[in-house]
């Protein structure tokens, strides 16, 4: 059995975005076109327009709220069986909570996803990093194979006026207004030390059943792309991931090969001075999306970048074991899908 949780949030009370709902709706279409049994849960808030706040007519059960997202994660954990696959895709704002660790007596950074609060309040609520880590750890402990995609960033204060950046400044009043609903359920087996640990440090809870793909490094910003055709926006990570899935014929494929492909596409953007971000990949590099794809050990894939003069450049060199007179084979991303072996 395969499960997908898709979260797309444009309609923030402040700094609304334009491409997040489109990201996850396109992922949903890809999933629905696939054969096999896939349970899809999608939570979106697009508002009456790309710049409006939350549409009052939208069913609150469909909102990307803290309550809905946490309940859905817990539901999947409860009904899924060992060996089932879970794909979680988040497109929205991220933030960073700076707090003092009482044990270490030093400042720690706790990452958080910026979701909606209670219905009709027009407020935001943080899904803190340690909360997310605990929820996903429960999945991994049950034997679920989890892939988490985060098309947001956790750094962005220097570009706070850029409407395409998927980052919001931390607001202490939001944190204080919504104490964690998970404190009582995890205290008996985790203790305060684990609760103050950041998502960045703890998302590799079980490398054999858990992978995380993020839109950028910890000190970079994730932006939305504006497409030339129609001017539609997408998160850069979601857009190139969708293109990879299109080449592969659906949501699947070896995650490491897809990651190398994404790195090459992001390098193209940097060469054109459009975006300065690099996707990050954590966890078991031999897994495939939904278990669909070749997981056999292969020679390392080398990303290829097309230069302005249409020549190609390998993203590897002497330091990676490449030498003069080496013979390399150029293959498309989807070459495994056409292999008879």
From TrEMBL:
GO terms for molecular function: cysteine-type endopeptidase activity. GO terms for biological process: proteolysis. It comes from the Eukaryota. GO terms for cellular component: cytoplasm. Residues 2-283 form the Peptidase C14 caspase domain. It holds the Pfam family Peptidase_C14. InterPro entries: Metacaspase, Pept_C14_caspase. Gene3D superfamilies: 3.40.50.1460. Belongs to the peptidase C14B family. This is Peptidase C14 caspase domain-containing protein. It comes from Ophiobolus disseminans.
